Amino acid sequence: MTHFDIIPLSADDAPAVRGWLAVAESVARHDLGGLRPRHPLQRLSSLVVSRDDIANERWLAVCDDRVLGYLHLMMPVLDNTHMVYFDLAVHPDERRHGIGSALLRHLEERAADLGRHSLSLWLPVPDGPESKVSAVGANFAITKGFTMSLEGAVRACDLDAVDEAALDRLWEDSWSKAEDFELVAFEGEPTEDLLDGIAYMHTRMSTDMPLGDWDFQEAEYDRERVLDEVRRHRLRGDLHLQAVVRHKETGRIAGHTEIVVEPGQEYDCIQGDTIVDSDYRGHRLGTVLKIANQRRVREWRPKMRYVWTGNAVSNTHMIAINEAVGYRLVGMENVYQKKL
Ligand SMILES: CC(C)(COP(=O)(O)OP(=O)(O)OC[C@H]1O[C@@H](n2cnc3c(N)ncnc32)[C@H](O)[C@@H]1OP(=O)(O)O)[C@@H](O)C(=O)NCCC(=O)NCCS
């Protein structure tokens, strides 16, 4: 039995930060099978640049200054205040010594102290016997009383493999059904007139997407929260490409999408939210938004190769659009949840 302590991670403690990053890298190589690769700079930048809408706590399991595992609590403060999202992992060479269980106990104690009673995380799971994703996380979670509350799929769009001629045809055809709308694309801060509409889109996104049994409640977005998000992306060194479609006659924002290129990433980037207001569905706005933003990635970063996205498997409309613009299934990931 390894002796270890659970201590807070401080951004000022360089050896501890290095140990934490090394464990995260080992776990990614060992367990995640290449799904959604992250650069260490992404972890570092989110350690030093916090966000107003999430309170973070980071803990390490350490033995003689060696980092064996980590726990990261993310607690929404503006909505969903019953919840803790978390990330928990143990170095592959240090497993089956009770470290994961101790970190999970610590998580449950912290959650109880903070008055939070719902724990959840997104966890990649193998999609077949050939999968390089390990099943250990999901098995561990289930052993510890978690249940699978939303089934999700991970897709990647290989920008080198996209049939651009087919995409041109889809773009033309989509605009023929979207003549009442215009596209506004930008990097970084939206203009003043877009802020309320984008805030509304984020609010709708939080509950319009299929949630299964996940007890996620409506998010509360306003223009300050949108601006905080922009500030955070800028300070972290992210490239934040957004696009909206606007109804020409009323000026209302009818849809929104975003792609984030995190610091250090040359080849992989992340598709964030995409949503079309329910009042405006059926005009191919989702397709227009996705094609426009995906093409802008290459304008900003010509070497970029993969755009990663995740959808609930029941989200058939979004998945159909994703497949049409070039995304292909690469794995599965589910939400696991435990109510305390
Ligand atoms: C999941 C993880 C955190 C477990 O860490 P750990 O330190 O090995 O966990 P513990 O030693 O406390 O194991 C506790 C119990 O979980 C179950 N378990 C853990 N690993 C297992 C495995 N490979 N196969 C089967 N059961 C396993 C067992 O019931 C085990 O008890 P036992 O050793 O007495 O049989 C670790 O494997 C990991 O970091 N995986 C990758 C990251 C991840 O998936 N995180 C999500 C966690 S919810």
Automatic annotation (TrEMBL):
The keyword Transferase applies. The keyword Acyltransferase applies. It comes from Glycomyces paridis. GO terms for molecular function: acyltransferase activity, transferring groups other than amino-acyl groups. It holds the Pfam family Acetyltransf_1. Keywords: Acyltransferase, Transferase. Residues 4-169 form the N-acetyltransferase domain. Transmembrane segments: none annotated. InterPro entries: Acyl_CoA_acyltransferase, Bact_Acetyltransf, GNAT_dom. This is GNAT family N-acetyltransferase.
